[in-house]
Amino acid sequence: MEQTRQKAIIVGVELQNQTDFPYSMQELRNLADANSIDVVDELSQKAARVNPSHYIGTGKLDELRALAEAHDAQVVIFNDELSPSQIRNLEASLERTVIDRTILILDIFSERAKTREAQLQVEVARLQYMLPRLVGLRASLGRQGGGAGLKNRGAGETKLELDRRRIEERITALQTELEKLVARRQIQRKQRQKNEVPVVCLVGYTNTGKSSLMNALLQKYNPQTDKQVFVQNMLFATLETSVRSIDMPNNKSFLLTDTVGFVSQLPHHLVKAFRSTLEEVTEADLLVHVVDYAHADYEKLISVTNETLKELGAYDIPTIFAYNKCDLTEQPYPQTEDNRVYLSVKENSGLDELIELIRGHIFQDYMECEILIPFDQGRLVAYFNEHAHVQSTSYEPEGTKMKLECKAADFERYRNDFIVM
Ligand SMILES: Nc1nc2c(ncn2[C@@H]2O[C@H](COP(=O)(O)OP(=O)(O)OP(=O)(O)O)[C@@H](O)[C@H]2O)c(=O)[nH]1
Ligand SMILES: [Mg+2]
Fold this sequence. Notes:
About 40% of the residues lie in helices and about 25% in strands. By secondary structure, the protein is α/β, with parallel strands linked by helices. The chain folds into 3 domains: about 160 residues, 3-Layer(aba) Sandwich (Rossmann fold); about 170 residues, P-loop containing nucleotide triphosphate hydrolases (Rossmann fold); about 55 residues, 2-Layer Sandwich (Alpha-Beta Plaits), CATH 3.30.70.
């Protein structure tokens, strides 16, 4: 049964010289919507800084109270992370549930988390956020007892007894469990590194089509696979990292990683908790930055993603751009321009162009050569058949002649075992 959606007012402070304010309020609306909350009105204030006690000034606060009453809105959502005392003061003054941007994102994450690792990460982030806010978060804390999401708001108000110590103990226990999972993931990653298969990572703002792109490439190159990933038209459909091998013809393959989408002001605790998941990004050989080119604010979304990458320490990894959803724009596609491919994953158009660009980046160190392998080095013939793209093979009196495209590193490694023609 459809639950009755809560009504909320969103509130933001526009700082001086802030250029992205309207956009950030829109994003807050989307986050509320993803949490099944209806935004019925919004209130903003221009100020040099956020009011330390009540986020907004006294006059605005009166205005906000009147607005909430007029709309019968049970919830007020603030566009930044509130301090513990701000939450306390605002709840006392508004007599309504007070939510900030951070808890909104945390709630979406906890509702979406499917794997144990993602669930642990979200819960750690959420508990760390709550710890200093125990007194303020009267209503919000109730949710802890009843599980994820805002749906249980109010129902657990009496469960406030979860005291600081129990929360701290719980964080420790969760972190211990998490470390075990992380260790396992790191072993897998080391194994992959040893295999020297290049790693390409899809990054981008949430809902731009990263997972769709992953599925389309899998469909194209590994059609027999049943390892498709989850796609949905919503914020943060993906919270877990998936790694798939894309096996192209010519014995060339790479690993493609799909991961969580970004949003502006991704809460600090969350980034920290997801660090192990996101480490995959920092160790990639190439990033494919997926852009929703049909989004009115796509440039802003690109810079949000770049900011997040910088925060993760992944800013200097070679990057190419996939301008997706061109089917919804006037832009001609498929088309490649420098480091950019205009494409539509939905229409299956532009995938070849994208793959070409990816290949150009990760297989730069491939070379073409013609070699003669003496018969006593027969194992090399087998090796190149498996690891290189062999264009022709012929058998000469002195050995096997092969024309092939192989890794420059392989060429160097076996340089003394064959004769270059
Ligand atoms: N019109 C159009 N829609 C697309 C295209 N590619 C993806 N979509 C849709 O965009 C929505 C989001 O796709 P996902 O692949 O889940 O996006 P994502 O980037 O993985 O999102 P998160 O995991 O939330 O970060 C889905 O509804 C897709 O069907 C495209 O080329 N054109
Ligand atoms: Mg996804």
